[in-house]
Amino acid sequence: MSRWISNEPGEEAALLQALGISSVDELFSDVPKKARIGRLGIAAGRDEPEVVAEIDKLLKRNKPLSEFATFLGGRIAPRYVPAAVDAILSRSEFYTAYTPYQAEASQGMLRALFEFQSLWVELTGLDVANASLYDGATAAGEALLFCRRLHEGERFLVPASLPWEEKSVLRNYASGPNLKVEEIPYDDRTGRLDLDFVRSAVGRHDVFGVLADVPNGFGHLDEGVLDLKSLLGDVPLVVAADPLALSVLEPPGNYGADVVVGEGQGFGISPSFGGPLLGLFACRKEHVRAAPGRIVGATLDADGQRAYALTLVTREQHIRRSRATSNICTNESLMALAFVVHASLEGPRGLASLQTSLAEKARTLASALGAVDGLRAPRFEAPYLSEFTVEVAKGTAAEFLDRLRRRRILGGHSLADPRPGVPSGPERILVAATQASGDKEIQKYAKAAKIALAAVGRNA
Amino acid sequence: MTVSFRQARWDEPPIWELAPPGTLEAPPAIPGVPERLRRKAAVRWPELSEPEVVRHYTRLSQMNFGIDTSAYPLGSCTMKYNPKVSEMLARRPGAANLHPYQPEATAQGALEIIWRLERLLGKVTGLPEVSLQPSAGAHGEYAALLMVRAYFREQGESATRTEVLLPDTAHGTNPASAAMAGFTTREIPSKDGCVDVTALRAAISEKTACFMLTNPNTAGLFESDILEIAETVHAAGGMLYYDGANLNAILGITHPGRMGFDVAHLNLHKTFATPHGGGGPGAGVLAAGEKLGPYLPVPRVVKSGRKFRLDYDRPRSIGKIKTGYGNFGLDLRAYAFALAHGEEGLKHVARRSVLNSNYVGMRLGKFLPRPFRPLVKHEFVLSGAPLKERGVRTIDLAKRLLDEGVHAPTVYFPTLVEESIMVELPETESRRELDQFVAAFERAISDTPENLHAAPRSLAVRRVDEVRAAREPLLSWKDLRAHGAKAETP
Predict the structure, then answer these.
(1) In this model, does residue B486 exceed pLDDT 70?
(2) Closest Cα in chain B to A39
């Protein structure tokens, strides 16, 4: 039996005696016989060293990113997490706490979340941020529902270039209230949004919101987002932005965004095979009562001293039930702490300098891959920061990535929707510059790419 | 033994007051980025050294309760001890440093952990089709209801089955999730804290898509009519949904499958001891029987031969509900917990948590009335209504408990009990801890009304004015600047 449960001799007997019963079984007399089960059919328990040995045996079958030259990206960025971030996250007053319902006992977490909210406000140029949502994709889903509370209509426009996972999540969020997600086509040369399409769709008066991502799903920047709001009038604009990119880009609040969502994993959170992640959400103050999720506010205590509390709770499920702005209860608070700690360690200059150096690496990578016969790198004629799209002109993206993998290179990920029956589209991969991959790894990638594509040629 | 307690009280300024913001000059231009897209001023945030940042957040941590500092008797939250070994394992490079898009061949261990945990949870729930994708309990509820909706669409009944029924004791997430998934909701009144089966029969119809139930419920009671409830729901062609928030009390005794549920969510951050992180992350597993299994999110993890892979070929699936495959870091912790406990251990978890709550319920029942039958499962409910004779409310008692160095129970929920207090002290609390909690409760409730109103006094702050927080929302540093507000002059 594990030592996580007290097993002092006589302890259970004393508790039973106090209750005036002779067996714990009596406490289950309200479970009908027909509802009882026999055995679960799982293995017997193990002691701690055995658990460690078993899990380590499984983990050895994984090859962590450090064993490869890594160019994986997308919304999940494998970045170096400063040791100080994990030191703070390991403070068990933080990580073993529950949601700060009892404000007086939870000032530490409330303060940290208030600082996190403030940082997302500064990055986005909006007024109010919540204390986190599950991830970037669900934050976009919540933004969709939020827009519908602000504006009539039945269609929500998203870029056709949005990652397939996010489109799928958005379609799920839209499906409850029977709303439609419609894709904005992009220019084949630049990947830029077709603004004429947006203009005419909005002109039909059934669009309740438009989402654009910065950088877009191809990793590129589209200057057109700056002009989107002028086409929308009072139709809300959602910008899904990469937080690191916002250290060097115009805050979306300055060009009319009503909501800014994002994936915050890149700040202080290891990729952990895709979770936990961090959903970011900010909006304008006049819309805060329509916003989803927990929000921390500053107030005073009985002595008139500054104190913090969860606030505007009448929006939330535990008060408003079926009329709540969202069903979210548990969020990603600890990850929000990681975000603000990492960003504070870097400071504004550190963040901008990290983004600048990744962009420089990405340019080196693009020119190295651009020289490879059989690759179009970058695929789109458009600016980029850390990542860009490459089109594999010979063979398939999957084969190409697999050949690279055998040479210990994680060369990016395919942008295709992997579900059978969905048209697979062009053979495109998203390639990211990462801190761990320098000139040597970039040259290794280019060389391996040449060999891989030459092999395709021979097979053909 | 009396625990004497004083929380650290740092006059720690907000991080932006530790140093002036760095230069607000624009960051250096990145070649190729159009001028119009460039940030014209640096992010307004201070430039601090690592020791300054670490001290700041360490001081904040010292003004926070956690399960490592004290008992945390929040009803329906199952605040149990979080094993340290799980923290160590989740930080191994083979777990933390994996990208969800890296090739399957390079993540066989992670896929096997997911696959094994899914099978294990299939046995624990009696619902064999499992997905770990949801991020939290409410997220799982929502996904499950989307699955129910997809199922009825395929049956040609989506136009008629538009209603979700739930008891008036349901967690707020249940009606909120149902509404988000496009259903209307209808509450079934309780009788003596349990579902009134007659009222359920009267309410159920061909419009019923689903009945959502927590068992044991939020009053801490086992719904002994569960088999009859399941039969009633199924006879009307509806689905029965299991809210797994309170699964801890029945591990290895019964399970949702045996009780007749069609689909369930579990909270790994409750039953399987993953830490709650000050509000999250959680992990909300979905478990389904054969009817709803095909609708689970993609991808599913499957084993072909000795290899594990991600299977996207599920034509009935609702698709994705988040990026990636779930909160793997927490799944790993939960798997370690399950491995350590095993068959007998999990059953012992249920037995000990039920023993603990019955014991503490009996002891506290001497101070305040218990509105329902005394035999409870994982938690019990008290009514603080008699305190009002002394001009005291439940909230005062809760705040006074904080002064004892223990967290307060869940208060004002379930709402059908006046001034309710919901207490859950799971299996990881020893008899000594239980007795200390009872003693703290006794000192708190016996204190004078003046002291109860003045509580807390031993924490970093005194009673927090939540009404002011909502009436004059100050939600960020930007707001504080706009109000010209500094700590002392709001």
Answers:
(1) no
(2) B252
Q: Mind telling me how many Å the CA of A44 is from chain B's nearest CA?
A: 4
Q: pLDDT tens-digit profile of B104-129?
A: 999 999 999 999 999 999 999 999 99
β-strand partners of A440: none
What global pTM score does this model have? Answer: 0.97
Sort out which chain B residues have CB atoms less than 8 A from A15's CB and list them: 355-356, 359, 431, 434
Interchain CB distance below 8 Å, B327 and A335: no
Amino acid letter, residue A177: P
CB contact under 8 A, A165 and B279: no
**Chain-chain contact of A12 with B61 (C-beta, under 8 angstroms):** no
Phi, psi of A175 (to 5 degrees): -70, -30
Locate A91 and state its tokens: 């403070």
Establish if B333 belongs to a structural domain.
yes
Percent of chain B with pLDDT over 90: 95
Parse chain A into domains and list their residue ranges: 66-78+347-459, 83-341
* pLDDT over 80 at B22, yes or no: no
Which domain range does residue B97 map to? 85-340
Which value, to the nearest 10 degrees, does the dihedral of the CA atoms of residues A168, A169, A175, A181 take? -60
Closest CA to B458 of B388, B411, B406, B403: B403
Question: DSSP 3-state assignment of A365?
Answer: helix
The enclosing domain of B247 has a CATH number of: 3.40.640.10
Cβ atoms of A378 and A390 closer than 8 Å: yes
CA distance to A157, A422, B52, B296, per residue, from A416 (Å) = 20, 9, 45, 21
Assigned domain for B238 exists: yes
Taking all residues of chain A, what is their mean pLDDT, rounded to a whole number? 96
Say whether the peptide bond before residue B299 is cis (omega within 30 degrees of 0).
Answer: yes
- Residue B270 included in any domain: yes
* Nearest beta carbon to residue B85 from set A36, A51, A329: A51
Q: Could you read off the pLDDT of A185-235 as tens digits, one per residue? A: 999 999 999 999 999 999 999 999 999 999 999 999 999 999 999 999 999
Strands B420-423 and B410-411: antiparallel
Instruction: Give the separation between CA A104 and CA B463, rounded to whole angstroms.
Output: 7
End-to-end C-alpha distance for chain B, whole angstroms: 42
Q: Is domain A66-78+347-459 annotated with CATH 1.20.1250.20?
A: no
The Cα B143–Cα A367 span in angstroms is 44
Q: Are the beta carbons of B17 and A111 closer than 8 angstroms?
A: no
Contacts of A352 in chain B (CB under 8 A): 27-28, 42-43
Contacts of A46 in chain B (CB under 8 A): 339-340, 342
Structure tokens, A80: 């170096």
The enclosing H or E element of B145 equals: helix B137-154
What's the count of helices (H) and strands (E) in chain A, helices before strands? 13, 15
Q: Give dist(CA B213, CA B315) in Å, integer.
A: 29
Query: Where residue A59 falls among pLDDT bands split at 50, 70, 90?
Result: very high
For residue A1, the model assigns a pLDDT of 55
Q: In the prediction, which pLDDT does A234 show? A: 96
Shortest alpha-carbon distance between residue B183 and chain A (Å): 8
Cβ pair B212, B166 in contact under 8 A: yes
A142/A172 Cα distance (integer angstroms): 11
Nearest CA to CA, how far is B347 from chain A (Å)?
A: 9
B1 within some domain = no
CATH number belonging to the domain at A83-341, selected among 3.40.640.10, 2.60.120.10, 1.10.3720.10, 3.40.50.1110? 3.40.640.10
Using CB atoms, which residue from B83, B97, B322 is nearest to A66?
Answer: B97
- When mean pLDDT is compared across A116-125, A403-412, B21-30, B259-268, the lowest value belongs to B21-30
B490 — pLDDT class (breaks 50, 70, 90): very low
Total tally of structural domains belonging to chain B: 1
Mean pLDDT within B198-206: 97
